[in-house]
Amino acid sequence: MKKAIIITAVGIVLILASLIFSSGHHPQQTFLGNLQQMEIVLVEGEYVTSPRSFIGHYQGRLGIPTKYPFIISVIITVAGLVMIINRVTSRY
User: Fold this and answer.
1) Which has more confidence, 90 or 83?
2) What are the DSSP E strand ranges found in 12-87?
3) pLDDT given for residue 77 in this prediction
4) How many CB atoms lie within 10 A of CB 33?
5) Measured by CB atoms within 10 angstroms of the end CB, which terminus of the chain is less buried, N or C?
6) Please, are residues 66 and 18 in contact by the beta-carbon 8 Å criterion?
7) In this predicted structure, which of 48-52, 64-68, 80-84 has the lowest mean pLDDT?
8) pLDDT band at residue 11, thresholds of 50, 70 and 90?
9) How far apart are CA 54 and CA 71, in angstroms?
10) Contact (Cβ atoms closer than 8 angstroms) between residue 15 and residue 74
């Protein structure tokens, strides 16, 4: 039972951490729209624009899309909850 509670707690902490350390939030978008565009930036990089264009890009930027750690943490949380439910229902 302790193992299941720890796994669930780790999953919840990972969900919160993946959302807290993410950048690129837009208030006008939905949660899933934001989750699709947000990323956890590991190396900031430099914003570069070309002289002929107003559109630029980040050079040397390293980031992980937020959706992948979020999905993994949800799976861990659900696995912990399933372990708790199986333990409780097996007693009866």
Assistant:
1) 83
2) 39-43, 46-49, 56-59, 62-65
3) 94
4) 11
5) C
6) yes
7) 48-52
8) very high
9) 35
10) yes
Query: Tokens representing 20?
Result: 């807290």
pLDDT, mean over the chain: 87
Distance of CA 19 to the CA centre of its chain: 5
Helix (H) or strand (E) holding 26: none
Q: Locate tokens 């993946």: which residue?
A: 18
Residue boundaries of the structural domains of the chain: 1-22+64-92
Q: 11: buried, middle or exposed (CB in 10 Å: 19+, 13-18, 0-12)?
A: buried
66's tokens: 């937020």
pLDDT of residue 33: 87
Specify the amino acid at residue 68.
Y
Answer yes or no: are the C-beta atoms of 76 and 7 closer than 8 Å.
yes
